[in-house]
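Listing S7. Sequence submitted for prediction.
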Amino acid sequence: MAYQYLSDIELINEIGMLSKLIESLTSQVEKLIKLKAEAKVSERTYIEILDELRKRADVISRKKEELLSAADDRVKQINSQIAPLRHQLELLEVRKTISAIPNVKYKVTLEETQNQIKEMEETKKRIVEPITAIIENSRRVDQHISREVQAKPQIPTQPTAGPSPAVRPAEPTSGGPTSVIAQPKPKAKPVDSDTKPIQCSMCGKINPESASYCYYCGARLK
């Protein structure tokens, strides 16, 4: 909205409405924080409403910046109009002092000029005072929301699922660990310490006396 093209009254009305909006928002934020401090609101509800208020504050903030700029320009314009009127008052007083102006004209001109300055000063006051309140309440809202957002507990994020490592099937253990390169030789039966061992004539391995065939190469022993 082009606030700079509004009349003084229209601009003052816009500033008044914005002031009420920000004042209401400030009250809502502070009440919400109080509910949290008194443990009268769940964390989830608190976070949701705080986010709603933060979004409203963002929307109001954009309007506020435009309106503050227009108000600042209007105050400068009013001051520029008041300056020559004050100079006119000074001229009027000097002319009266040196008797360069009739007394009746002096009084009429003085009253008219003072009334003009008074009206302009009143208009400026009606702009500046609510603007001051807007700036202060906006600061409070920003401070509250900023502090609460920083203190808001963060929901832990789930780790990004990556490719699962390939799981190799378990190796059979009945015959000991196997290898794709070479199969292990079968274990020889233990030799009974009470019997006389027999040496295989083929492979030279020692076998128990009761063995008829070599446990290692299969050759006949007896």
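Caption to Listing S7: primary sequence and predicted structure tokens for the chain studied. Helices lie at 8-37, 43-97, 103-151. The CA atoms of residues 159 and 165 lie 16 Å apart.
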